[in-house]
Amino acid sequence: MAADLAQISDVDIDSDGVFKYVLIRVHVASPSEDPAGECKEIVRGYKWAEYHADIYDKVSGELQRKGYDCECLGGGRISHQSQDRKIHVYGYSMGYGRAQHSVSTEKIKAKYPDYEVTWADDGY
Predict the structure, then answer these.
(1) How many CA atoms lie within 13 A of 21 on its CB side?
(2) Active-site position among 52, 80, 88, 101
(3) Burial class (CB in 10 A: 0-12, 13-18, 19+), 35
């Protein structure tokens, strides 16, 4: 099943605008069942979400139906300026706390290698 983790995209964010995002850890099995089990972090951010929980609930529900276990590691906001090829990660989630933006940024840089990708802990 670990090979299936590779089929889950590391990053899925809207193509332009400012929107909320969450950093999610996806486990092959429940952490209590397999504490050293295979897992990966994924970044999800969408303009349609009014709350960070909206994104987490939708994504975790889809992944749980496929047999994965998920936990939200935190959230923030993303400013994606596709014309300028810039992405800025910042802020925090009231419900989930601040995501580790450095982790999110590295994953975004891998998907958008020709972009200037930055992050900051300030802002909401």
Answers:
(1) 33
(2) 52
(3) exposed
Please, is 14 exposed, middle or buried when counting C-beta atoms within 10 Å of its C-beta (0-12, 13-18, 19+)? middle
CA–CA separation, 121 and 9 (whole Å): 25
Pure H helices in the chain = 2-5, 52-65, 101-111
Percent of residues, the chain, with pLDDT higher than 70? 90
Residue 3 has pLDDT above 60, yes or no: no
Q: If you average pLDDT over every residue of the chain, what do you get?
A: 92
52 catalytic residue (yes or no)? yes
At 11, list the tokens.
């990053």
Q: Judge whether 20 is annotated as a binding position.
A: yes
